[in-house]
Amino acid sequence: MTETVAPPQPKVVEPGQPQKGWAGQNVPRKEDKRLVQGEGVFFDDIKRHEMGYVHFVRSPYAHARIKSVDVSKALDVPGVYGTLTGDEVAILTDPFFELSVPPGAHMKDYALAVGKARFAGEPVAAVVASSRELARDASELVEVEYEPLEPLVDARVAQEGDAPILHDEAGSNVVWDGTFDWGDYDAAAAEADHVVKIKELHFDRFSSTPLECSGCLIEYNKGTGQWTMYCNHQMPGVGAIWMAPALRVGLDKLRFVTQDIGGAFGNKICLHPYFVACCLLARKLNRAVQWTEWRTDQHTANAHGNERWFQDIEVPVKADGTMLGFKVRATDDCGAFPRYEPLGCIIWAQVTPGCYRWRNIRVDFTQVTTNKSPVSPNRGYSRMQHLWLTERIIDIVASELGLDPVEVRKRNYVKHDEFPYETPNGCIYDSGDYARCLDIALELIDYPSIEQKRRDAESRGRLLGVGIGSTLDSGTNNFGQSMILNPDLQFSGNNEVATVKLDIFGEIVVTLGTVPQGQGHETTASQVVADILGCSPDDINVRPGHDSYWNSHAGFSGTYASQFAVTGLGAVKGAADMLAGEMKKLASVVLGCSADDIELAEGQARMKANPEAALPFMALGAILNANNAGLPEDLGVTLNCRYVYRPPFEKPDLERKYGNLTLTYATQIHAAVVEVDPDTGVYEIVDYAAVDDCGKRIHPQIVEGQVHGATAQALGAATHETFPYDADGNLLTPNFYDYHVPHALDMPPMKNGFIESESPFTPLGAKGMGEGGGAGIHAICAALQDALRARGKPVVTDSCNPYHRVWALLQEPEASRAGVEVVSR
Amino acid sequence: MEAGTAEVVRSKTVSVTVNGTTYEREVDARRLLIHFLRDDLDLTGSHVGCDTGNCGACSVILDGTLIKSCMMLAVQADGATIETVEGLAEGEELTELQKSFSAHHALQCGYCTPGMLMSATALLRSNAHPTEAEIRKAIQGNICRCTGYVNIVEAIKSVGETS
Amino acid sequence: MLLREVEYARPASVRDAVRLLSEHDGARALAGGQTLINVMKSRAASPDVLVDLQDLAELKAIDLAADGTLTVGSMVTYTELVESVEARARPILGDVCATIADVQVRNRGTIGGNVCSNDPTNHLPPLMVALGATMTIVGTDGERDVPAEDFFIGVYMTAAGAGELVTKIVIPAGKGDGFAAVTIGKDGTCIVSAAASLDGGAPRIAIGCVDAVPVRVEVSSTAADAVREAVRAANLDPPGDVHASSGYRRHLAEVLAARAVEQAEQRRN
User: Fold this and answer.
1) Total Cβ atoms within 10 A of residue C201
2) Plot region of C26 (φ>0 → left; ψ -120 to 50 → alpha; else → beta)
């Protein structure tokens, strides 16, 4: 979007300002009543007569040639219904389509390993049996002969001449690479008074690990050739695009059904290999089959967040602390198969300069495969990694040049009066006030008292540190950004669907194309519809979950990428507006007036001038649906309205890699105070503030809940949650025993603040905000670096800092310092 | 069977009373109590979130004691009285705790909620007015990935304060 | 979650339990199951027969003798120890048990199970060594007492052999005890733990997670420097893993031993 019509300045709503209507209120969640009684329906709750349980045989090797697979002993076990092998998959399906240009385009990804296993835990065969236990027993009888190959676990050496190659067809471990060059980095470096150089930073692998693992119950209808998948796939639109061509069927042969999903956070987007294997089994055995992923399976073989290395970072800085941009070489580790990748190679560009007015940025970006779990778009996808870089840059530069971390942020932040702000790569930051959010965060942690608290801590033998994390949560993707990676892709824009109908007894029924996993879509959708139709959210029946057969979905339907408040509710609003118009029209015909004379209020369509002349919704529904003889031929009223919301996007300029990649930018500014025990490296988060600005809050309580949850996930990722591999490619934290996620005692007391800078670009002034940009990771890294400053000024170079890493920084501060250099004019 | 000597069995008929209903089922010795509840009795309110006994989604109250039903065999529960999330509400009337969870937005996806409610129920039975520290300690064995525990703690505290 | 086939028996007496354990190869006692069942879920171990001890009331008693000696039945749960009035005679016991895992695990996990599984990250093996506890082991040949120092013989291995059962743990009187650990998250799995007791002369220190069994460290003084020096002199060679390098564990052993001794001194006075 190179030509932008300047929109009006956004409206800023002060906390405590009264709201009109249902939107903006904390109405009780519709989802809760069933969930607090254990009456939710999650995929694993569904059973079918004589269904078979699927258990996958998984590779114990990170990299191995598969010489043979023998299922005969498993098939001999009474109660075993059948098996599936890679050889069958290679015959019955085509490889999943790849998004990348070559070399990534040539990588072949199937439902089961074909010819080679490329990560420990990769499914090699599947067994179906009459009980879960029996399926596992029989899977142990499948004999697989492997020829182990050297594994590749370090992305940094993936391109070296002697590195093992994962995908022989591609001839390289590179999925995608390219240079992004905006502004004039060289001129900025020449103009700078200092250039701060940072050798290497590392963003760890982790995953938000939804408490419910993945799975499905799949039925095959032999007569129609259709599969019904009761599942927890969070992005069925795209899932079907992967699955249907692989299965060599049309899209409509795949019906995705979800009701309740136990969290997803991006980890339930790349389930298509498992689902295709189950589809093949359901068809082969003519039996419903059920697959439940267990926790260790999920950690080893579902999906991780992207791991990323940032090397040779250079930051030109003026004497007054103004930063002019940066350059960096980024290497992204996507694990064994690209799947949703290489989209992560462009998604970060939605927030290219972070919160800052940096105009000159050069990024050499390479994504490679390694013999580790594939990745998927984990909450904060790709932007979080990049935003962590921008915040590390700020704090390392501030530390090296002796600048105040608050002042240097405020000096470099995009200013309140500069919105809508166009970034060097053409993204339009819609609204915000970063400095004000920072002030609120600092007030919440009583920033002026920090030096006193630091001395108090010292007297107790503790090192106190304070850190800030400034992030953006960019929402509502312009899928046109994929064309920057691969011009042949036919994806751009975005869309979402909702239908709203008035049924025969006056029921208002809403269906969504989205796939909620706890975000309260039933509730917020009902608020929006109630405001438009003049009734209560209690009068609105929002169908829970997703069903492809409702026809309420579009190509980009799903719940991902911080967009429901924009796309989902935009569709709901559109459909409800259509229905309202039709209801008024019908009422005007019945009441003999103009549609403009009708208003919808208190569950009735009535004449504004004469509220006594009213038709209850039930009458409207009954007349049109069941008693319609005599209505005008050209009435044009269906009372069943489907609306597709399409955000205003242009295709990007592919040559310059330039354009508006997302519609909204929510802000999160967090501040953390930590205390480190210098004798052990153990630390505690003693104070924490999270300030959020996501524009109009439809349901403030839900927004706050998202902030709490995103913060907890970030704090987990900052402190303990990481997926390291040993040299053989074995995951060292394969379940919750070693992969420690925060529990109630681990979480610090959390203070929350907010402002509302409404988006000028969205139907309701709302912004997507669910992902949260990982502000907690950035804040903890900064706080640890601040706390350790007195002990040789070590530099925090990793996103995850368990105690042993902090202890290592205390022991050898110079080791981390060796990677930092300041060149001054 | 000789008096005073127990026999060794591969499967066994067990009798358990869950939420006031007594069930008798033949079950393999190897079957975990959580699978027995979910798959054999179709009481799917209790959930599975891990395979190492860490997450607490399967928490139930067995003979008055809060336990994780994934770390017990179904045969061990023979003769036991079990309470699960499905038994909390009296008909349509939710408990104060259930209402408080909803009022405080203490659940998002709702997957940890059944176990969390059982832990909080057990806490409030032994300690009607718990402090925040006691609440956090009491739900430490229940992982929630959505809420950061903030509103869960508030919801439990609120019941303690108003009871 | 899906265990291998297993056989199950639920004896009503210790005598019958011992019979079952000795008559069946591959039989294992099932106490609280908070470790064993998890190991079976991963199929890392698959006993052929599980002998469920839950009905053995004789293993559930806590007795406090006039001289302060505490006798704890092996099937006493952590929660029962935390709540027991008798067990307050040796306060460190309840204090440490209150930090093991979580409520649900404490409600079922037992002191006997903790010491018999002898996972190097368990809290109680080093504590039992420091307190000078004695385990009573019953087999078909009768009963014998084994001091904690000799009880732990390897990772997941103890002096209680095949066909045998630990019935009780005897803990002498005392109060000058300390325990310090660095754990994964609050009250989590131990990365390194150290227990100390000053009752009965020179400090008894035992360090966990640095070897297959708790490591006893001899020291004559309670001064922090002396304790740290003694730990250094023990030339520990702990394993490294994802949570700690060998060097970090060695360092923590020093710091935590000194802290455990410091806490023991405070409690003694």
Assistant:
1) 7
2) left
How high does pLDDT run on average in chain A?
Answer: 95
Q: Which of A26, A30, A35 to mutate to test the interface with B (most CBs of B within 10 A)?
A: A35
Chain length of chain B? 163
Show pLDDT as tens, one digit a residue, over chain B (163 residues).
Answer: 445 899 999 999 999 999 999 999 999 999 999 999 999 999 999 999 999 999 999 999 999 999 999 999 999 999 999 999 999 999 889 999 999 999 999 999 999 999 999 999 999 999 999 999 999 999 999 999 999 999 999 999 999 888 7
Q: How confident is the model over C87-106, as pLDDT tens digits?
A: 999 999 999 999 999 999 99
CATH number at residue C109: 3.30.465.10
Q: Are A703 and A527 in contact (CB under 8 A)?
A: no
Closest chain A C-alpha to B4 CA, distance in angstroms: 32
Q: Are the CB atoms for B151 and A744 separated by under 8 Å?
A: no
**Hey, what are B30's tokens?**
């190897």
Amino acid at C124: L
If asked whether residues B109 and B140 sit together in one domain, one would say yes
Q: Look up the CATH number of the domain holding residue B54.
A: 3.10.20.30
Residue B81 Cα distances to A476, B17, B97, B124, C109, angstroms? 50, 5, 22, 19, 19
What pLDDT, in 10s, does the model give residues C233-253? 999 999 999 999 999 999 999
Question: Which tokens hold the place of A71?
Answer: 């299922």
Interface contact flag, C3 A681, Cβ < 8 Å: no
Residue A432 token pair? 């915000």
Residues C167 and C183 in one domain: no
Residue C19: how many CB atoms within 10 A of its CB? Answer: 19
Which A-chain residues 682-741 have CB contacts (< 8 A) with chain C?
682, 720, 724, 732-733, 737-738, 740
* Number of C-beta neighbours around residue C22 at 10 A: 17
Across the interface, whether the CB atoms of A133 and B30 are under 8 A apart is answered yes
Structural domain span for residue B130:
96-162
